[in-house]
Amino acid sequence: MTALLTRLPAVAALVAAALTGVAAPAQAAYSDPLTTIGTAGLGLTYVATPQSAITALDAALPNAGVAQVLQSANHPMLPCGSDEAAALPISPKATRSMCWDAGDANTSAWNPQGITSSGDADDDGSWGANRLLLSGWNNTDTGDRRNDARVAFIDYNDPANPRYRWVYLVDPNDAGTNFSAAKAHVGGMVWYGDKLLVSAVGNSRVALRVFDLDHVLQATDDSATIGRTGSGWAAYGYQYVMPEVGRYEYTAGTCTMANNTGTPCFSSISLDRSTSPDTLVTAEYFADGTGSRLVRYPFGADFLLAAGSSGTVTASAAHRSGVANAQGVLSWNGRWYVAHSSSTLHGQLWRVTTGATGVSRTCTSPGTTAKVMCWALHPEALTHWYSDGLVWSQSEAPGRRAVFAVPLADLP
Question: For a designed S-S bond to 136, which of 114, 185, 204, 212 qualifies (C-beta 3.0 to 4.6 A apart)?
Answer without folding.
Answer: 114
